[in-house]
Amino acid sequence: MQEPMVNPQSSRSSYTHGNCFEHYSSVEIFNACTTFCYHFKLWWLDKNAMCILVKEDSQIISKLKEGDRMNMKYYDSQGLSDSESRETAIQWIRKADSGRFKGHYLVYLDILN
Q1: Of 7, 106, 107, 112, which one's alpha carbon is 20 to 30 angstroms from that of 66?
Q2: Residue 103 region, left (φ>0) first, then alpha (ψ -120 to 50), else beta?
Q3: Residue of 22 and 96 predicted with greater confidence
């Protein structure tokens, strides 16, 4: 599998919402099955996609499924005090078999509201 180009400094946008979410830098996911909160840096892929990197041995990866919708808490790049909850869909999940993200899954997100 060819590794996708990932650049956290690139022009930021969500799949369908243009640049209205570009100020988000991280996301928090709470999963009731694990009773843990997970906090991830957002990675922006080219101009149209964002994802998180999840270690392949992380407990949460088995709880995330393509097509799932859940509320996630997004944090502004200015600090952790500014956050917004948004309904988010998991678009797809890909394992990085080689390159800089080997040993991780790329979980592609789409903010729905």
Answers
A1: 7
A2: left
A3: 96
